[in-house]
Description:
The protein is mostly beta strands and about 200 residues long. The protein has strands spanning about 15-20, 35, 40, 45, 50, 60-65, 75-85, 95-105, 110-115, 135-140, 155-160, 160-170, 185-195.
Amino acid sequence: xxxxxxxxxxxxxxxxxxxxxxxxxxxxxxxxxxxxxxxxxxxxxxxxxxxxxxxxxxxxxxxxxxxxxxxxxxxxxxxxxxxxxxxxxxxxxxxxxxxxxxxxxxxxxxxxxxxxxxxxxxxxxxxxxxxxxxxxxxxxxxxxxxxxxxxxxxxxxxxxxxxxxxxxxxxxxxxxxxxxxxxxxxxxxxxxxxx
Length: 195
C-alpha cells in the first residue's frame, strides 16, 4: 500500500464530556448526564470538566478542528496537545477518564497514541509516524479501542483550578483500512466524577 493516500480526519474531532455517578461523594445526581453550557449543576453545586488545545479555549463540548489531516499516507500523522481542565469554580477535585473513542465511519481505521506531557509546547504538531511520541506514553493502538486509564483504575484525579496536558497522535492504520479516499471523525468521550 506504499504511496497510496487515504483521507483521514475530515473536518474535526469532537470531544464530549459526561459526568458519571458520584456515589459516596454527596453529589445529588445518580447517573451519567451530558454537560451542557459548560457545567452540570446538582443540589446547588456546579461542576465542570473542560478540554481544549489550551486552558483559555477549554469548553465542555469542544470541536477540535486542528486535529485533522488529509491525503494521509503510511508515514504521515496528526499530533496535537489536549488540555484537560478542572476549573477553579469547581468546589472539589474531579476524577476523570477517557471512557471511549468512536469513529463516524469504519474506514479509514485510525491508530491513536497518547502521552502525558508537562505543557502544550511539548507536543509539536509537525510529526510523522517515525517521530518518537513526547512525554510518557499511556496508550498506543487502534483509536476506537482507546480508554485511559483502564476501567479497573479509579481514574485520574485533578484538583480544582488545575489542568493536565495530553499529547494525541493519529495516523492511518494501513492494515485495517480497506478503502481509499474515505474520511472519518473521531469522537472522544470523557467521564468525570466529583472526588
